């Protein structure tokens, strides 16, 4: 399943209680808040579980990756998806193509941010 299809089907998945979407991603580029970019190879696997999602894909999810589990909100099937790892950050995922995401990791109250360009697939 291609990524936009995987993310776009969250509204349908939400109707099935306990439906979970797993996305296996690899960072290709990392950029800092000044726009300075370098190649990246970090891997991350996101597990997205719908909690309460409407027909347009807006609503609440649980996102898990690494040692992080957080509540995440979405404005539509394709995002933006927004959450925090703690009290001092804001995280967001944006669908940028059929198999790609942009992950912005921002420190709250500062202009500091890291933007990761991810290539993703559904490992199923």
Describe this structure in words.
This protein is mainly beta. The longest helix is centred in the first third of the chain and has 6 residues, at 3-8. An 8-stranded antiparallel beta barrel has the order 1-3-4-5-6-7-8-9. 10% of the residues lie in helices and 56% in strands. It contains 2 helices and 9 strands; from the N terminus they run ααβββββββββ. The chain has helices at 3-8, 10-15; strands at 21-32, 37-39, 43-53, 59-65, 68-74, 81-83, 89-97, 100-107, 113-121.
Would you kindly provide a brief summary of this structure?
This protein is mainly beta and 124 residues long. 10% of the residues lie in helices and 56% in strands.
Question: Descriptors for this entry?
Answer:
eight-stranded antiparallel barrel; mainly beta; 10% helix; 2 helices; 124 residues
């Amino acid at each position: 399943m291609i990524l936009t299809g995987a993310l776009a089907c969250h509204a349908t998945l939400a109707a099935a209680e306990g439906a979970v979407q797993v996305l296996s991603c690899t960072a290709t580029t990392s950029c800092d808040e000044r726009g300075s970019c370098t190649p990246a190879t970090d891997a991350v696997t996101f597990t997205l579980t719908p909690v309460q999602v409407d027909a347009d894909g807006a609503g609440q999810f649980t996102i898990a990756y690494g040692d992080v589990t957080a509540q995440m909100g979405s404005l539509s099937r394709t995002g933006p998806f927004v959450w925090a790892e703690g009290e001092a950050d804001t995280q967001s995922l944006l669908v940028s193509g059929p198999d790609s995401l942009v992950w912005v990791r921002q420190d709250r109250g500062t202009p500091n941010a890291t933007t990761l360009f991810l290539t993703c697939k559904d490992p199923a």
